[in-house]
Task: inverse folding
């Protein structure tokens, strides 16, 4: 049988003609198998060189048009959900990490201004976490103003996602398919334990990806997933393929928290809301830094953030595959701040003039880290 020639198409022509289309995959409740929402996946025109997402996004990246493509994909996802015979309660759409600081297009703002009858959940991949943490947090805040939410995608594919999980505190945690397909490795057990603990702490909904068999379904439920997606429930296709949804889907997710990702105040002010400051004495700062460094070294997955160039020496030797290290060029609020956060633990030290506060509870240490990371470029 002769193959049909593939039609050559440039990324410029595709963008000018808005020839991106969305296909949609159902996300279901694992207990009832009712559809709770849809994930939009981008495709180029069928039969062209840019039909599939790997070539599509590679071409945009090479041409310097990644931001344009990412915005178009998001627009097309929302347009498709709005045009559906039955609107889904939840629309999941991916965001490209390298262009998260790009402002929303006027057309996308118009789409959201029309108050869509669904909540949109923006999915971050682990690549966004160490690359553009400031943009990631700022965009999360903007999305939540509209009543929407965020998901952390592919959790477990990279140790960095575990480190950033307490800082991002998403509405949805999506477990990587490799954890579901190979659940008995030490890594998979660690991921499952972290996800269960974080979901219990924050109220996040856990979604298992890549469910293709009944065995995968049983594994996903055993690992703590509430919802799931995969070929067992439906392959990506036209949105018209799904017409029956659980109308309670959007309400299952935690309510939006517009100011959560960018706390008001300086790190010192945030820290002292949970613990009073004290007059520091000689040796306090050094002892605090030693404890912070030891905490980071004791954990494979951690985010270390420091706000003063004078603390650069603290970061030496801390870099590791699952450990992100961020040094701010300028102090935030003129303060001397260092924080370390990871799955189930957190520690922060904030110094303002002669006053000092240290915190070792995860919510406060994560809030201090969010203040610092929000000031990164």
Result:
């Amino acid at each position: 049988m002769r193959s049909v020639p593939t039609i050559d198409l440039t990324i410029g022509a595709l963008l000018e003609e808005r020839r991106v289309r969305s296909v949609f995959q159902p996300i279901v409740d694992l207990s009832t198998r009712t559809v709770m929402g849809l994930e939009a996946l981008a495709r180029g025109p069928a039969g062209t060189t840019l039909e599939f997402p790997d070539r599509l996004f590679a071409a945009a990246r090479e041409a310097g048009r990644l931001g344009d493509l990412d915005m178009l994909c998001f627009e097309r996802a929302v347009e498709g959900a709005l045009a559906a015979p039955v609107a889904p309660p939840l629309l999941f759409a991916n965001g490209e990490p390298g262009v998260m600081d790009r402002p929303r297009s006027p057309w996308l703002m118009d789409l959201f201004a029309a108050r869509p009858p669904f909540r949109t959940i923006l999915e971050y991949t682990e690549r966004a976490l160490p690359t553009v943490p400031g943009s990631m947090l700022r965009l999360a805040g903007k999305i939540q103003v509209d009543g929407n939410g965020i998901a952390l995608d592919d959790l477990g594919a990279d140790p960095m996602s575990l480190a950033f999980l307490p800082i991002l505190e998403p509405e949805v945690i999506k477990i990587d398919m490799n954890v579901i397909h190979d659940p008995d490795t030490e890594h998979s057990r660690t991921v499952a334990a972290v996800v269960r603990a974080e979901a219990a702490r924050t109220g996040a909904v856990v979604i298992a990806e890549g469910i293709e068999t009944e065995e995968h379904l049983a594994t996903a439920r055993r690992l703590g997933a509430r919802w799931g997606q995969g070929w067992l429930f439906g392959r990506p296709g036209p949105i018209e393929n799904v017409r029956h949804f659980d109308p309670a889907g959007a309400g299952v997710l935690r309510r939006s928290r517009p100011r959560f990702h960018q706390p008001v105040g300086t790190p010192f002010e945030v820290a002292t809301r949970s613990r009073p400051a004290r007059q520091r004495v000689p040796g306090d700062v050094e002892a605090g830094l030693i404890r912070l460094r030891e905490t980071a070294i004791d954990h494979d997955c951690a985010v270390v953030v420091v706000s003063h160039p004078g603390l650069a020496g603290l970061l030496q030797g801390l870099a590791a595959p699952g450990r992100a290290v961020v040094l701010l060029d300028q102090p935030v609020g003129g303060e001397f701040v260092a924080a370390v956060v990871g799955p189930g633990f957190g520690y922060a030290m904030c110094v303002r003039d002669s006053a000092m506060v240290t915190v070792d509870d995860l919510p406060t240490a994560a809030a201090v880290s969010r203040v610092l990371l929000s000031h990164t470029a």
Notes: The chain has a mean pLDDT of 92. The longest strand covers residues 21-29.
